[in-house]
Specification:
By secondary structure, this protein is of the alpha/beta class. Helices cover 35% and strands 14% of the residues. The protein has seven helices and six strands. The protein has helices at residues 21-29, 48-54, 74-84, 98-114, 144-153, 179-187, 199-213, and strands at 12-16, 33-37, 59-65, 87-91, 132-135, 188-191. The strands form two sheets. The protein has a four-stranded parallel β-sheet, sandwiched between helices. It has a two-stranded antiparallel ribbon with strand order 5-6. The N and C termini lie far apart (41 Å).
């Protein structure tokens, strides 16, 4: 898509650093330079203000990635694109059947109400919960990685959604201030909300998390 739009050598393309190394790789394959912008801490998608601040005379496009079942603020991002003459491309997630989304939302609602000591996801803008991502702050107490290992030890299949932001990878390493990206990479943990989970399994997730979450200082 970048090549078809004429993006190439000498151009810059604004992309997120929070996951999706293949997006940055696609930019380099087109001959352009990926420029990393920070994310919104609630949606984990590109932040509109950060994107506008990253625009230069060489900017040719923005690649917007929708994340975890939340949508980026595509209307405002397109407005930025129009102001600066940028191509705005979107990368979405595969859509699950409606009944599966409904069951995920039901399980997410249960976790929202029951979890303590972790920061639950913001459910606005039609969240489909492709992943149910909580925040586990470190602040001198058990951090996200310790928390995740303890949960796995209790049989909870959790995972770290983004282990290393793209701008920290050797092939893309650069000095850029992305505080929300850095914090999200350090704190986020995806808990299961699959439609196949039973009530007993959901209760086990809550019990395991709350036993550990009570050790954490408030993150708000």
């Amino acid at each position: 898509m970048l090549r078809a739009a004429g993006v190439g050598v000498g151009d810059e393309v604004i992309v997120p650093a929070f996951g999706n190394v293949e997006v940055a790789e696609a930019v380099t394959l087109a001959g352009a330079l990926p420029v990393f912008a920070d994310i919104d801490p609630l949606t984990y998608c590109l932040d509109v203000t950060a994107v506008e601040a990253a625009v230069t005379a060489r900017s040719a496009a923005v690649v917007v990635v929708h994340r975890f079942g939340r949508w980026a603020d595509i209307r405002r991002l397109r407005e930025v694109g129009q102001r600066h003459g940028l191509l705005v491309l979107e990368q979405g997630e595969s859509e699950a059947p409606y009944d599966e989304i409904a069951q995920r939302r039901q399980r997410a609602s249960y976790l929202d109400a029951k979890l303590r000591g972790v920061r639950t996801p913001d459910g606005g803008d039609g969240h489909t919960y492709q992943q149910y991502v909580v925040r586990v702050p470190g602040n001198g107490r058990p951090d996200r990685d310790v928390f995740a290992r303890a949960l796995r030890g209790k049989g909870v299949d959790c995972r770290v959604p983004v282990k290393t932001p793209v701008h920290r990878l050797p092939e893309f390493r650069c000095w850029v201030s992305l505080p929300e990206t850095e914090t999200a990479a350090d704190e986020t943990l995806a808990l299961p909300v699959d439609a196949a989970l039973t009530k007993r399994e959901m209760r086990r997730i809550v019990s395991a998390c709350n036993a550990l979450g009570g050790l954490l200082q408030p993150a708000f």
